[in-house]
Amino acid sequence: MDLYTLSATEAARGIREGCFSSVELLQSCLLRIEQTDAAIGAWAFLDPDLALAQARSADDRCAKGRALGPLHGVPVGIKDIYDTADMPTCYGSPIYAERAPDVDCTVVSKLKEAGAVIMGKTVTTEFAFLAPSTTQNPHRPGHTPGGSSSGSAAAVAAQQIPLAIGSQTNGSVIRPASFCGVYGFKPTRGLISRSGVLRTSGTLDQVGAFARSIKDIALITDQLTGYDINDSATAAVPKPHLSSGYLQDAPGEPRFAFVSAPYDDRLEQDTRTGFAQLQKTLKAYAEPVDLPDGYGNMIDHHRVIHDIEIHQLLSADLVAHPQLLSAQITGALQRAAEHSQEDYAQAIDAIDAVGAFFCELFNEFDAIIVPSAAGEAPATLKQTGDPIFCTLWTLAGLPALTMPLLKGSTHLPIGVQLIAGADQDARLMRTARWLCTLLEE
């Protein structure tokens, strides 16, 4: 069996048990990249010698009987907005093409502590925003992989690596995971530190991960959680353990809410058909729920927050390098001037209102089921797809998991998104496993 096909869980176990070495695993992944990436373009930076040096160090620890981490010797791709001390971090922009950080961000430090090999930097859209990258969908050339975590989703889908890190400010984990047919997870806001990560919105930015199984999503997320004094969104409180949640049996049959939203008219027919069948299959466990009147306005609140906060980050670059910024970035920076401080205050207040509504809803339901995206990956490289089916959950800061459970009429994947209550990330893993088991029967 080719080692690159292994899940992260299988790979870590195989290395611990001496079935193969980290170097052998890395060599298999590097060969897979060599064979596939010319058509995909998932990597912004890849130094095989640097990756293999880390793998040799991991194998040396094994040989000396030293402590091994849960991801020991397993390669992980890092979105190119996360600072890495031995690799450039360029934010997907020519303005920062020469940027070389001196220290690792908290996420990368935690991955190294868990024994992971930092494989390289995956392609991001410009400043993790809307302008498309050159990465292509691994299932079909000419189709977008989604954004902004384009390279991370594509690399995992192409089996170049078992795990990758992304980020989500709107739909930048869930949408590309859906388009590329992998599992994508954005945990509860504040569960993972963003210290040393590009912040286009201090309010909305959240760390996320990609994998080829729910179990691997739980595994990598557990290595990243924790309080960080350098990120005020984190807190020194107990954290959910997702791997334990995944392994638990549900105490009873879960209850699901199929939530209808004012923007559901954007759904493609394939998604409508798939969800109609899903509702029929789950009719004994689920019921439809409508969002309250006015919740369509939450999309506008999200836009106000993002426009104003990305302007705070990039206004100097707009003045210094206007010719090096995309039309999408420039448009957001110009829109920011149209928003008043009252607009911004109302948008921030809306987060608490949304949180209160869903807190009440999750007293009755284990999870919400909604589409991850409008449909299959669009047949274009000029845009990354509509993020609106992720916007509300990002604004609310709720844990969101997309699973590749549906196929469209052209046989491209369509994700099903599960949402749980704040800090119910472990429960979400348990519920997702129950759902997948039911659908496989």
CATH C-level class: Alpha Beta
Give the low-confidence spans.
none
Order of helices and strands: HHEHEHEHEHEEHHEHEHHHEHEEH
Estimated helix fraction? 25-40%
Strand content: 5-15%
Number of spatially distinct domains: 1
| Structural class estimated from helices and strands | alpha/beta
Radius of gyration: 21 Å
Count of helical regions: 14
CATH level-4 homologous superfamily: Amidase signature (AS) domain
Mean pLDDT: 97
CATH architecture type: Alpha-Beta Complex
CATH topology: Amidase signature (AS) enzymes
Oligomer: single chain
Widest sheet: strand ordering: 1-3-2-4-6-5-10-11-9-7-8
- Count every beta strand, where a strand is a DSSP E run of 2 or more residues: 11
Distance between the termini: 27 Å
Specify the biggest β-sheet: 11 strands, mixed
What would you call the shape? globular
What attributes characterize this protein structure?
single chain, 441 residues, alpha/beta, Amidase signature (AS) enzymes, 11 strands
Give the SSE map.
Layout: H1 8-16, H2 22-36, E1 43-46, H3 48-63, E2 75-79, H4 106-113, E3 117-122, H5 150-157, E4 163-168, H6 174-180, E5 183-186, E6 206-211, H7 214-224, H8 242-247, E7 256-260, H9 269-281, E8 286-290, H10 297-320, H11 327-336, H12 341-361, E9 367-371, H13 388-396, E10 400-407, E11 413-419, H14 425-440
Parallel strand pairs: 2-3, 2-4, 7-8, 7-9
Antiparallel strand pairs: 1-3, 4-6, 5-6, 5-10, 9-11, 10-11
Helix pairs in contact: 2-3, 10-11, 10-12
